[in-house]
């Protein structure tokens, strides 16, 4: 029996510590009834073969393809050993991590570019050019040359700002067998801020790790119910802020 050739591609600029997206298609088991479980290896050359030197951990990560054999997974590249002009080989393998899977080995490569210098973000509390930053002389509560005597404290986001950020961070579709993810980091709000998640199906919060993981897999038992996500941001020394966002009004 023949199988459709699996594909592997990379999207995004590859620089030390960058987040890129791996995409693939054709990754299904022998019966074409389920997606493959895929091991991802990152090598310090374009070949990514057994003779290559690989980045740790090895495998670097694993990916579960969807039922139709596709996947789109963000990974963060290593910082150490990654320099501009070098090449990172990325090899995807299936067959050994799941029963009745197909043995596949697909490789692609990316050339590392220099770390970009991003323009200042006026809404970033860690940005030295932010007028609300305590190091700026225009801030009367800061510690700059024209600053007042009181110190500057970290601020939690407003509920409105948090709700907007959560809506923007939601990825995926709330359908049976599919996954929905909240790709939101505390660093978006403050240096030491922490983000916690609680999924709510109908009127009940999902218990255990399934309920607090940033990714939720929709189940058959969820059909006909609403799916919400409750997100809390806690900044040290500041009152926590919580908001609830409707993900799907009625799961089908």
TrEMBL record:
Bias type Low complexity, positions: 113-123, 129-155
Name of the protein this chain belongs to: Uncharacterized protein
Species assigned in the record: Rarobacter incanus
Classification via Gene3D superfamilies: 2.60.40.2700
Region called Disordered, residue ranges: 113-164
């Amino acid at each position: 029996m023949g199988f459709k050739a699996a594909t592997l591609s990379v999207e995004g600029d590859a620089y030390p510590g960058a987040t890129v997206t791996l995409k693939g298609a054709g990754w299904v088991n022998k019966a074409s009834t389920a997606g493959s479980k895929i091991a991802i290896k990152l090598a310090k050359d374009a070949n990514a073969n057994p003779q290559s030197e690989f980045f740790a951990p090895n495998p670097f990560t694993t990916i579960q393809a969807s039922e139709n054999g596709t996947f789109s997974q963000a990974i963060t590249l290593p910082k150490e050993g990654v320099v501009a002009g070098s090449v990172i080989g990325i090899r995807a393998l299936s067959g050994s991590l799941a029963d009745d899977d197909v043995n596949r080995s697909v490789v692609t490569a990316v050339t590392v570019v220099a770390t970009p210098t991003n323009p200042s973000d006026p809404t970033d509390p860690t940005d030295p050019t932010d007028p609300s930053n305590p190091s700026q002389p225009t801030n009367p509560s800061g510690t700059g040359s024209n600053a007042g005597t009181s110190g500057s404290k970290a601020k939690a986001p407003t509920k409105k700002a948090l709700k907007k950020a959560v809506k923007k961070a939601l990825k995926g579709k709330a359908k049976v067998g599919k996954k929905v993810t909240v790709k939101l980091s505390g660093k978006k709000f403050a240096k030491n801020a922490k983000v916690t998640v609680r999924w709510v199906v109908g009127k009940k919060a999902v218990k255990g790790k399934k309920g607090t993981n940033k990714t939720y897999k929709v189940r058959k038992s969820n059909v006909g119910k609403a799916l919400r996500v409750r997100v809390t941001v806690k900044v040290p020394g500041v009152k926590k802020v919580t908001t609830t966002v409707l993900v799907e009004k009625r799961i089908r």
